[in-house]
Amino acid sequence: MKSVLIIGAGYMAQNYINYFIKKKFSITVVGNKKNNIDFYKTKKNKIKIIYGGLENFKIKKKSFRYAIVAVNEKNILKVTKILIKKNIKNILLEKPGAKNLRELNQINKLSMSKKCKVYIAYNRRFYENIKIIKKIALSDGGILSANFSFTEWIDKIKKLNFEKYLTQKWFFYNSLHLIDLVFFLIGNPKKLFTHSSHVDKHFNKTSFVGSGITIKKILFSYHSNWSSAGRWEINLYTKKRRIILSPLEEIKIQNKNTINVNNIQFKKKFDNVFKPGISLMINSFLKDGKDLPILKTYIKNFRLYKKIAGYNF
Question: Helices 302-309 and 176-186, interaxial angle, to 10°?
């Protein structure tokens, strides 16, 4: 039985806790807010709860091989440094992994010196529909081209009163969910042509268009206008059909030479029980890290992310 350390007690941490409890794992949870995790403490749950933050918890050497960091982005760097220095060799960071690129580089440098594997928890890669979509595309001879949108509803986001540092880099803190998934499906760009404009005082740039070709020789384009209408959407084109992800956890198909768009029903084993993607992502993390973005590669991709966004993180 693998023993897992979870740092955090908020919404995402609770999704991890729910999974491990359901699967009867032995876990230790370290959190600041007592009321967020107190109700998990029952005799039937194999859970140890530590209050007051990681600074008050003495990690014994080799007591944990796996740790999940699900704290506020302001505290990810501090917490992750402590875990790496305590020789925990496998760490999963909740996205986006740190407050900015500078902090990500600090974590990466330390993790490499300690031979620690650090992954970023982009759970949408692990939606149950993604495997099905890959099989459909492969049976059609592969993906020929793609287009996508990462339009954000900024009028609604403004009403939620996020701190300015979050909204000013909203592409980094939120839009990367979709960007990561689409390039996971079609490969990273080999050539990329981008334009961005229309500056909003709360959100930096809000209009993004671009195109390119990936390392898999797949042509792609994107158009996102946060000042107008739209939503997250990915369209994948094969010789036989258009595969539509909108919303991302569903599958819609438009066959060649038809105008009808049909929802494809598929049986979910995990994503209707846990937060979508969480189950398969954790399985990957505890096994071999397959399909999880490792920190070194994630940082390398920032040259692409910054080019699409039109500003630095």
Answer: 120
Tell me which amino acid residue 274 is.
Answer: F
Judge: domain 3-121, CATH 3.60.21.10.
Answer: no
Q: What confidence tier does 205 reach under pLDDT thresholds 50, 70, 90?
A: very high
Question: How far is it, in rounded angstroms, from Cα 255 to Cα 208?
Answer: 29
Mean pLDDT confidence for 122-142: 97
Whether the Cβ atoms of residue 230 and residue 154 lie closer than 8 Å to each other? no
Q: Residues, the chain, total?
A: 313
CB count within 10 Å of CB 118 equals: 28
For the stretch 98-107, pLDDT in tens is: 999 999 999 9
Tell me the residue type at 158: K
Query: Class of the 125-277+295-309 domain?
Result: alpha beta
